[in-house]
Amino acid sequence: MNLGVTLALAFGLSMDAFAVSLGYALASIRLRSSDMLKLAASFGLFQAGMPLAGWLLADRFVNIIKAWDHWVAFFLLFAIGLHMIYSGFHGDGTLPQKTDRLSTTTVLVLSIGTSIDAFAAGISFIGIEDIPIGNTVAVIGVVTFIFSTVAMIFGKRLGKSLSSKATLLGGVVLIGVGVKILLEHILK
């Protein structure tokens, strides 16, 4: 696999993490640099680690994984998106409030939800001869880290201008990514 193909793959796999990073940043009141680094690093690590895991486990679990991966991603992203929308309403539900907490659990759930497609991509590597798996997953991880960071910087700035509607928009983005993943697999 040449560098151009690897970069294209990394770009494609990082788009879900990009969208979720953007949505989360839109919904955050004070997204600290440490939170941005934590989320981007987690996305990068999961996007790199999941194809490696898929490649290593491909022979044993391919049928089980393909049957359930899209449902797991959909459920995780839908649940977090719904929670963000719910959290966007305070008290009587009339005034949206932006979220302000990035817990380790949230980081892990978002990372898993956005990297399940990368796991499936790793399964497909099994048919490629002489794939430089170490280089491939490193490029995927770095590209995802960069794209996620850029998305959060952009989302943070855009979120300030959107003010109270940002949490709702962030939740809708997460649900949209989950629905996209589900539909891609169902409509194959």
Descriptive report:
Helix content is 81%, strand content 2%. The chain has 188 residues and is mostly helical. The chain has one domain: Growth Hormone, Chain: A. Strand 1 (89-90) and strand 2 (95-96) form a beta hairpin. Helix 1 packs antiparallel against helix 5. The longest helix has 55 residues, at 33-87.
Short description:
The chain crosses the membrane at residues 6-27, 39-58, 70-86, 107-127, 133-154, 166-183. The chain has 188 residues and is mainly alpha-helical.
Task: Lay out the secondary structure.
Elements: H1 3-27, H2 33-87, E1 89-90, E2 95-96, H3 104-124, H4 133-162, H5 166-186
Helix pairs in contact: 1-2, 1-3, 1-4, 1-5, 2-3, 2-4, 2-5
Features of the shown structure:
188 residues; mainly alpha; globular; 5 helices; 2 strands; Growth Hormone, Chain: A
SSE ordering: HHEEHHH
Biggest sheet: strand arrangement: 1-2
Domain unit count = 1
N→C terminal distance: 24 Å
The total strand number stands at 2
- Classified by CATH, the class is Mainly Alpha
**Largest sheet, if any?**
2 strands, antiparallel
Strand content: under 5%
Helix content: over 70%
The whole-angstrom Rg is 17 Å
Mean pLDDT: 82
Question: Oligomeric status of the shown chains?
Answer: single chain
Q: What would CATH call the architecture?
A: Up-down Bundle
Structural class: mainly alpha
Gross morphology is globular
Number of helices: 5
Unreliable residue stretches: 91-96
CATH topology: Growth Hormone, Chain: A
Subcellular location: Cell inner membrane
Organism: Thermovirga lienii (strain ATCC BAA-1197 / DSM 17291 / Cas60314)
Function: Probably functions as a manganese efflux pump.
Pfam families: Mntp
